[in-house]
Design brief:
Layout: H1 12-23, E1 33-39, H2 43-57, E2 60-66, H3 68-76, E3 83-85, H4 91-97, E4 107-112, E5 114-118, H5 130-133, E6 139-142, H6 148-159, H7 163-166, E7 170-173, H8 176-184, E8 190-194, H9 195-198, E9 199-200, E10 203-204, E11 208-211, E12 220-226, H10 234-243, H11 246-254
Parallel strand pairs: 1-2, 1-3, 6-7, 6-8
Antiparallel strand pairs: 3-12, 4-12, 5-8, 5-11, 9-10
């Protein structure tokens, strides 16, 4: 195959084999697919990361979005997910204890931020004082028993001493995506949503907002875990590694998430 005077490959078949060996590390010989249950707050960055993951690895991740509490219930009742990206740091542990997830794959992939937002420019001030003035009819939030961001909204209002005053104005969505829709549709003048839903290029893309201080509620530390169904799926471990790697973390920062991986 090789002459004694040159290392040049003369056989075109051998050349093709070498090219395959050299490029195989970039894309797996057999691409795999992983089904991922994803907390609704993470829908926009997830779509970006999924596209980059496919491009960089050859694997595919197929996301299904919903409230963390509802996704947990679906998994317990046999939904065919292979991985969970939760909006809290509790749900993945529950699945591990139930024997439905792999403890060694449990990782924090991001810390989210809560924001009080209105699609109207100038409506929400940068300290959230509008909550105290009560100059609105409806306040949107995600259902606290299903969605960690909804629970964080209640904790924030409790810290402000406003839960009883404002409870009659609540418009609750099953998840944070529905809370956002209530605001954009005009069914609520303002509401609590995830910062990632209203952020682009490092700033609020439209409307007006108060980014809630993290001390106002428990940290929105978001965990991922591979479920038992995904134990032998190459794409599951590959996506978990990719999610906590530098390319995905750059995307997360662009959408307002704070990094705190383990």
């Amino acid at each position: 195959m090789f002459s004694g005077k040159s290392s040049r490959i003369a056989n075109p078949v051998a050349w093709a084999v070498l090219i395959g060996l050299l490029t195989g590390w970039m894309h797996p010989v057999r691409a795999d697919v992983v089904s991922v249950a994803v907390a609704a707050n993470f829908s926009t960055p997830m779509k970006v990361i999924v596209a980059e993951f496919a491009r960089d690895t050859g694997h595919q991740a197929e996301p299904s979005f919903g409230a963390t509490g509802k996704l947990h219930t679906q998994i317990v009742h046999g939904a065919p997910f292979e991985m969970l990206l939760a909006a809290d740091d509790v749900t993945c542990g529950k699945l591990v204890q139930a024997g439905l997830a792999m403890e060694q794959t449990r990782r924090t992939y991001a810390v989210g931020r809560l924001v009080l937002w209105s699609s109207r420019p100038g409506f929400v001030d940068d300290r959230g004082e509008i909550l105290k003035s009560g100059d609105f009819r409806h306040l949107a939030l995600a259902a606290p028993r299903l969605a960690p961001y909804g629970a964080a909204a209640i904790e924030t209002l409790t810290a402000l001493g406003l839960v009883d005053k404002l409870q009659s104005r609540f418009v609750q969505g099953e998840n944070i995506a529905q809370a956002y829709q209530f605001i954009t549709s005009g069914n609520a003048e303002l509401g609590f949503v995830a910062l990632s839903q209203v952020m682009v290029d490092g700033g609020i893309r439209e409307g007006s907002a108060w980014i809630v201080p993290e001390a106002s509620h428990r940290p929105l530390r978001q965990e991922a875990v591979i479920l038992k169904r995904g134990e032998n799926r190459p794409a599951a471990l590959a996506f978990l590694d990719y999610l906590t790697g530098p390319r995905a973390q750059t995307v997360l920062q662009a959408f307002g998430y704070r990094l705190e991986t383990r």
